Amino acid sequence: MSNFIKQFLNDESGATAIEYGLIAALIAVVIITAVTLVGTNLKATFNNIAGNLGGSVGKSS
What we know:
The chain has helices at about 1-10, 15-55. The chain is mainly α and about 60 residues long.
């Protein structure tokens, strides 16, 4: 029984999987933030262009 406990305490494979999971989550957050910022800036740019052309973007008459 004590041999099992020693092996369990020395096993780090679970910690490695958790680290990879945290890295993947961080990368996902960065990608979501970047896409959101680009989308917001793109929408503002198209609204600016539409305003200069005399139209409206995203509004129904």
